[in-house]
Amino acid sequence: MSDIYKRKLDHIELCTNGDVENGVHRGLFEEVHLLHDALPELAMDELDLQAKFLDHQLSAPLMITGMTGGPAEAGEINRGLAILCADMGIAFGVGSQRIVARAPESTETFRVRSVAPNVVLIGNIGVMQAKALGAARVLELVMAIEADYLAVHLNPAMELVQPGTDADRDFRGGYDTIGHLVDALGGRVLIKECGTGLSPKVVRRLMGLGVRAVDVSGVGGTSWIKVEALRNEGMHGRLGKTFAAWGLPTAPATAMARSVAPDATIVASGGIDNGLTAARALALGASVAGLARPVLQAWQREGAAGAYGFLSEVLAGLRMAMMLTGSRSVADLRDTPRVYGPNLHGWLQQTGVLR
Fold first, then answer.
1. In the prediction, which pLDDT does 2 show?
2. I want to staple 299 with a disulfide (CB 3.0 to 4.6 A). Which of 116, 203, 232, 307 is the partner?
3. Residue 50 is part of which domain span?
4. What residues contact residue 4 under an 8 Å CB cut-off, 6+ apart?
5. Is residue 103 part of a domain?
6. Quick check: is 36 in a domain?
7. Angle at Cα 94 formed by Cα 236 and Cα 177, nearest 5°?
8. Domain with 69 in it: what CATH number?
9. Which residues of the chain fall short of a pLDDT of 70?
10. How many distinct structural domains can be found in the chain?
11. Residue 18 included in any domain
12. Left, alpha or beta for 217 (phi > 0: left; psi -120 to 50: alpha)?
């Protein structure tokens, strides 16, 4: 088995069973307190969960963010979850297609259109891999799986705790690369972090390049730095443990992104594992709440039925939060009153979101 296939299988195993969270907080969503409405004057069947994701309309403001691809097991996961997302009217992202450049046969593990023709599908490539491949080759990767959009992921922290020559050490040219991809794909680009968050400076500059969507992917859920730390020993393993909680928590990252990009599609991921947390993310300004590891764990435990049951419970929790705040729609939820705990308040005040 090649090293890159082994790495993908390690990721599935560690994200299913390993201790891969930062252990400090859950994205600071625990410090978002939505005000209870004891007389909401609504019926559950009046609630409207529809949400816009770039040029598509979703039945609910959820997205399974990119996890895997490459090994046969990953293909089974991608196809099964894509079917669920299509049935539920939510978006689906595949894992990094970087492996395709080295193992073209792995393309099949990313192809889900044949089983989920109507799913809103997001491809995936790292920004430095996109730079090396060039815009034309990246466009071929998107077309090969018939993706609606391309997620370009940023993961310098994760790369720096990986040993070996495959790990990135030169992060120059990222903005130019993204600008070329925005042009080549007609704006069908989502820029996403990988668990350490997007700062307002980065989001602002991305908007200047014509980027219309970002996934802040903050600290709070899976720490990919910690995942790599568990895979490695020596200095890189120790560095991974030291930096396991590095980055911007998801809750403030979401609010900060909305403050500098009021018209953008914003995905909040990192620490979202139930409907109440999804509601808190939407209240902070997210267009869509993204989640990955909890879905993978449900799939690994009970297959499609387990994943469907988990996602259904997330949606039930979101509906309950909307009812208990008197929010008829996702837009209403964003306007609902809330109180922030001290740590989150400090983040928002010191970064200018609260004045």
1. 63
2. 307
3. 3-12+43-165+173-350
4. 70, 99, 102, 103, 166
5. yes
6. no
7. 70
8. 3.20.20.70
9. 1-3, 165-166
10. 1
11. no
12. left
